[in-house]
Amino acid sequence: ARLTVERGALDKWRGGEHSLRDDFVETVEAAAAALTVSLALEEDALGEYHLGKWAMSKKRFDRALEHLNRAIQLNPDYADAHNALSVLQSHQGKVDEAIRTAKIIAEKWPDYAPVHMNLAWWYAIEKQDAAAARPYYQRARELGLEPYNRLDDLTS
To answer: Whole-model pTM?
Structure first.
């Protein structure tokens, strides 16, 4: 069978605010950056960040910490890397530390939606404190994040 696609079709597919092409390009750039860092061909915050996320997904927390810290060292204004560091702390069972880190991130980047959602989750689910979670969840939603079923009661 032959697969054909109308010219420009990838540009029409939308996934959130990006086209499928944009998402594909972003993924390829991330993989290339991670590869060049892994092969010690280049120092790159994007590559370190993605290697850190990969290590975290494999529960290799020490390696994840090394990569994320290196990403932050290479680019101190890399909000995603700072946020991933807070998520790593929570995966290590250091929820209070994750919250402290996330609050610093939220203060520095008040329009960075993922950190607000993380704070809402940690307060609501980990700390069982809906009142503390509510403003973070509302801010994440204001910033465009989709509702999360387990946190929807926070909007009441």
So the answer is: 0.82
